[in-house]
Amino acid sequence: MLKITDLVKRYGKGDPVLKNLDLTIEGESVVSIIGSSGAGKSTLLRCINRLVEPTSGSIELNGTELTTLHGRELRAARRKIGMVFQSFNLVDRLTVMENVQSGRLGYISTWAAVMRRYPKKDIRRAYELMERVGIAHYADKRADELSGGERQRVGVVRALMQDPEILLADEPTASLDPKTSEQIMGLLRDLAGELKLPVLINIHNVTEAKIYTDRIVGMRYGRIIFDDTPDSLDQEAMDQIYSGSPHADRKTDMKEAS
Ligand SMILES: Nc1ncnc2c1ncn2[C@@H]1O[C@H](COP(=O)(O)OP(=O)(O)OP(=O)(O)O)[C@@H](O)[C@H]1O
User: Fold this and answer.
1) Which of 36, 162, 179, 199 is most exposed by smallest CB count within 10 Å?
2) Choice between 107 and 6, residue whose per-residue pLDDT is larger
3) How many whole angstroms separate alpha carbon 245 and alpha carbon 212?
4) Per-residue pLDDT reduced to its tens digit, 136-152
5) How far apart are CA 152 and CA 141, in angstroms?
6) Contact criterion met (CB below 8 Å) for 33 and 200
7) CA of 239 to the centre of ligand 1 (A)
8) How confident is residue 189, by pLDDT bands cut at 50, 70 and 90?
């Protein structure tokens, strides 16, 4: 279970971009985060794996408080958080298998990684997952020889090789054509069920969020203002999520504070 309580993020001395957020994700649900540009969606995901340092508040993953971890403990906790990126973040000159095995980096020795001496069980697992997502025949191909959809499948397998307790996806389909985008969303949904994994997806495409996710969280300027099933996301809720400006929101904040 992921339990976020009273999370605040402020970059430098600016206004907070996450304002006392509470969010709990239990079990294997697929949750999308929607909201206008600048609402804080990426910041929220990046606080969870500490690519961004939260200013205050608590983030617990299956009982482990993530915000206070350092060094070795932080690295161990990060292994349990798989991340899928918009731009795939693959190493182009490495093969698909090498990219996929980089998901095991935290688990095997540096020597084994440098010498590409992957444990047999990791190779077996990589093939299982690559078969599952349809890229096993590309195992020895360089990553830069693949299409966008194939590259994102490599990104998904690499994240799953971490044996994660949660999967975070930051605009995973934003660089893909509509058909491929739907395939990747379907894959994330199906894998969540098969692997009993909660998946949290930052996504701009509301239609895909409605089709492929179980729950939609709507953010507006650092706050969660909608959290419900896709069916409940009506026009009124959409207007609230996507209307206004940070300036208007700041006026509301000032009123609340006074
Ligand atoms: N490294 C940073 N330093 C300063 N401000 C930042 C930084 N990263 C993000 N911000 C600001 O934080 C706010 C939220 O940004 P964030 O990227 O989380 O929003 P988002 O909802 O993911 O937007 P988008 O959909 O456009 O990616 C924005 O006002 C942005 O300018």
Assistant:
1) 179
2) 6
3) 28
4) 999 999 999 999 999 99
5) 15
6) yes
7) 21
8) very high
Identity of the amino acid at 221: Y
b or e along 164-197 (b: 16 or more beta carbons within 10 Å of the residue's beta carbon)? bbbbbbbbbbebbeeebbbbbbebbbebbeeeeb
Edge-first strand listing for the sheet containing 223-228: 81-85, 166-170, 199-202, 30-34, 215-220, 223-228
Paired strand residues for 201: 32, 169
Cα-to-centroid distance, 237 and ligand 1 (Å) = 22
ipTM above 0.90, yes or no: yes
Q: How far is the CA of 93 from the centre of ligand 1 (A)?
A: 30
- Kind plus residue range of the DSSP H or E element containing 215: strand 215-220
> What's the pTM value of the predicted model, to 2 decimals?
0.91
Burial class (CB in 10 A: 0-12, 13-18, 19+), 147: exposed
CB 43 near ligand 1, within 6 Å: yes
Nearest CA to ligand 1 atom 29: 38
CA of 219, closest atom in ligand 1: 21
Mutation to probe ligand 1, out of 42, 85, 204 (largest number of atoms < 8 A from CB):
42
